[in-house]
Write a structure and sequence with these properties.
single chain, alpha+beta, Immunoglobulin-like, 3-stranded antiparallel beta sheet, 30 helices, 9% strand, globular
């Protein structure tokens, strides 16, 4: 028996379900402002620093840089200027859409194509009623990319994809919304859609950014030619095993090893900032013992010049200088801090101990010269207004957080909140500034308000002692009690700083966002220093290891040397890990890492390149020639001529590497790029070669005066009964740390033979001038 009513009911139910299913599939989900629209604006550079994301905006329209302030951006897009940028009644007519697709004149040009996914996304957002940022929006948990590594040949191409994983567990392909950037455009090209093209042999990364999360993909392009394994000689030094293993994988041959004279010069200049004397060159070259290089390294690490030179290096890092405006230390204070640094090195104290003493410094500048660090980094400002957070992060953790002061970091996960959470560790510091001619400036673990209260209490106590009136004394005692209570309440209050954009009061939090408890009334820096210098903190060890590697090898495992971040990976990750382990296991002993580097074959490779490694700047197949630092070069000229520089206000004979104050008057040091120590950035010291430098060396009256000095090296040689070969040989050894090559000796002797007796001193002066102006003299090689 048929039941038409039942069949009709089933039909209606089935078709209704099918109709709802189709509707569910065809009705677009409203785009999320946070997860769709902001990434779209970032992807097409609308909110970049060169466009509407700059502080002043562009043509009256301002967005937060790369979307770090969603609520403000939503207001700008939908309500600012009476909502003129959006037309809900006719989305296609919206100013936002028209300027983006080029149908309306736009100073920034067309950013998206008509009919593209990007345009559709914007239109759907407007049609959906302009949904704003919601508390219920899933947040980006992490970004995944594929592939993360690939081996290519020049000319090969590969497509990168990006997947966002959100806090609710959902996943989404965001390749079309991500940004792609090559770490080296001479090696790798990447287009806006994520297609990577290999251009030549080498290795580098492509950076992928989406909603503040950044990942990198590494692409390796080894050379085609297989090389003999004998080129990568066995070594029991882990540094060499890791470097040569990397070179072998890339099929890059290492340059040959340097000779003894070059090793002596290189290691002395790098380790003690001092040019070897001719007698040292002769003695070292004549030594036939197989361990002479290792013995030299040990001797250099104990010489007084070692402590002079590294006190200079750490003085740069710790910004030891006179304040530019309202100085409260004077040059004596700078000298005391310099001397303190040198004493720590002489005493064999570890980098952890030195760093901890600086970070936790309190007291006055005479009793504790390390307080000088806070005089230049905090100065007259409050912590959140000063450079203290930037300086500490860069000097001790090797990371640059300064961008996050004003906006989220574009290349790292640091947010503006992270910056002020970190700054809060220093919010209870205040300098009691004094004229250096009258008293010492001192650093206190207290706010300026508390210092003022304490000063008021001292005044009340003084008045109490002087008063003889009972009623007056009672009033003073009451006021003292009130001040004591107010001081106690302030010291026990929760430590916070104000986030300027949101107005929130933020408590101390470490850069890894781990929780920290600050006991009431204690110095927040105690917890910070404990976390920073812990063996488990990879940043603290890595920051110094990378600086040491750059100092001795010419380029860091990470470049820039003080820009450590996940998106800037080391050129040799295994070597990075080994050196950091060694530094931590040695209890942060600076000399231990130096010793490992100096004794490696990697350090002892020639600066002369081979056709197959001449383009290598990252993998240490050869030494990198670089101009000597300003102080070292000036001392080298003084040592070669036996005419040291004279510095006003300092005793005769003091060397440039011993001068504590970067503000000492010296045209030469300024011209050749000494650090002014304004920031902790390694870029403060310049190694560039400039035309004014060359002109100064070639035309300097000072240099000719040193060459011609009656008590200088040349005059002593000419009047000392030496023959031509002996004089020529010493001039070469005093400048280039090697004897002259046969061709060089013959050429100079020919010039001398052709000269008259009165002209011979001029020939020697010309030779000396040429040696001092040679690239071989001015460069570490």
């Amino acid at each position: 028996m048929r039941h038409p009513g039942l069949f009709l009911l089933l039909f209606l139910l089935l078709t209704a379900g099918r109709s709802n299913s189709v509707l569910a599939q065809t009705t677009p989900v409203a785009p999320s402002f946070l997860n769709d629209i902001l990434p779209l604006l970032t992807r097409y550079d609308c909110n970049s620093g060169g466009c509407h994301g700059k502080l002043a905006g562009q043509n009256g329209f301002r967005l937060s840089l790369r979307g770090f302030a969603p609520e403000a951006d939503y207001e700008s897009l939908t309500r600012e200027s009476r909502g003129r940028r959006i037309n809900p009644a006719s989305p296609e007519s919206s100013l936002l859409v028209g300027k983006a697709n080029g149908s309306i004149v736009h100073a920034g040009g067309r950013r998206i194509e008509r009919g593209s996914e990007a345009e559709t996304l914007l239109l759907n957002w407007i049609r959906a009623g302009l949904p704003g940022p919601l508390a219920s929006d899933p947040l980006l948990h992490r970004l995944e990319i594929a592939p993360t590594t690939a081996v290519l040949r020049p000319g090969d191409a590969v497509q990168l994809s990006a997947t966002a994983i959100y806090s609710d567990g959902s996943r989404r392909d965001v390749t079309s919304l991500a940004r792609f950037a090559s770490g080296d455009t001479s090696l790798l090209e990447v287009d806006a859609g994520g297609e990577v093209q290999a251009l030549r042999h080498g290795e580098h990364v492509v950076r992928v950014t989406y909603q503040g999360e950044v990942q990198v993909a590494t692409f390796t392009m080894p050379r085609d030619q297989q090389l003999a394994t004998e080129l990568y000689a066995d070594s029991d030094q882990p540094i060499d095993q890791l470097v040569f293993g990397r070179l072998q994988a890339l099929r890059i041959p290492p340059s040959p090893a340097i000779d003894d004279a070059t090793f002596l010069r290189r290691s002395m200049l790098d380790t003690i900032g001092t040019l070897p004397a001719p007698a040292e060159v002769q003695s070292f070259v004549a030594d036939v013992q197989p361990d002479k290089r290792a013995r030299l390294v040990e001797s250099l690490l104990q010489r007084p010049e070692f402590y002079d030179y590294w006190a200079l290096q750490l003085g740069d890092l710790l910004q030891n200088r006179v304040e530019r405006d309202h100085d409260v230390r004077g040059r004596k204070g700078v000298r005391r801090f310099h001397q303190w640094i040198r004493q720590q090195l002489v005493a064999g104290r570890s980098w952890k101990q030195i760093a901890s003493d600086v970070l936790l410094a309190t007291g006055n500048t005479t009793e504790n010269p390390a307080v000088g660090y806070y005089i230049v980094t905090i100065g007259e400002k409050s912590a959140e207004e000063s450079d203290i957070a930037d300086s500490v992060a860069q000097a001790f953790l090797g990371t640059r957080i300064g961008c996050a002061r004003c906006h989220n970091h574009p290349l790292e996960r640091y947010t503006q909140d992270d910056y002020y959470h970190f700054t809060a560790f220093f919010s209870r510091l205040a300098l009691q500034r004094r004229n250096p001619d009258e008293a010492d400036t001192s650093l206190h673990v207290a706010t300026r308000h508390v210092l003022n209260l304490q000063q008021q209490m001292l005044e009340q106590q003084s008045k109490l002692q002087q008063s003889k009136d009972a009623a007056e004394q009672a009033a003073f005692q009451k006021r003292i009690g009130e001040l004591e209570q107010e001081i106690r309440q302030n010291l026990e209050a929760t430590v916070t700083v104000r986030q300027p954009r949101t107005g929130q009061m933020l408590s101390p939090r470490q850069l890894d966002r781990s929780a920290v408890q600050i006991p009431a009334g204690t110095d927040p820096r105690l917890q910070l220093t404990e976390w920073m210098t812990a063996p488990s903190n990879p940043w603290f060890s890595a920051a110094m290891v990378n600086r040491l590697w750059k100092h001795f090898l010419g380029t860091g495992l990470v470049e820039p040397a003080d820009d450590l971040r996940a998106t800037n990976p080391p050129s040799n990750p295994a070597l990075w890990q080994y050196l950091n382990q060694q530094f931590v296991q040695s209890d942060f002993d600076l000399k231990h890492v130096m010793r490992l580097i100096l004794n490696s074959r990697t350090y002892q490779l020639s600066a002369s390149t081979l056709p197959e490694n001449q383009h290598d700047q990252r993998f240490y197949s050869h030494a990198l020639a670089r101009r000597l630092p300003a102080e070292v070069l000036l001392d080298a000229i003084g040592a070669a001529t036996d005419q040291p520089e004279v510095f006003a206000g300092y005793p005769l004979g003091i060397r440039a590497i011993q001068v504590p104050d970067p503000g000492v008057d010296s045209y030469f040091l300024t011209l050749f790029g000494r650090s002014e120590r304004v920031t902790a950035c390694a870029c403060e010291r310049s190694g560039d070669v400039t035309l004014p430098q060359l002109l100064h060396l070639q035309n300097s009256d000072s240099l000719m005066a040193r060459i011609q000095a009656p008590d200088g090296r040349l005059q002593r040689l000419l009047s000392g009964g030496r023959n031509d070969q002996q004089i020529i040989s010493e001039l070469f050894q005093a400048t280039l740390s090697r004897p002259p090559a046969e061709s060089e000796l013959v050429s100079v002797q020919a010039q001398l033979s052709a000269a008259g007796q009165d002209e011979r001193p001029g020939v020697y002066q010309d030779l000396f001038w040429a040696l001092l102006n040679s690239r071989e003299f001015a460069f570490q090689h």
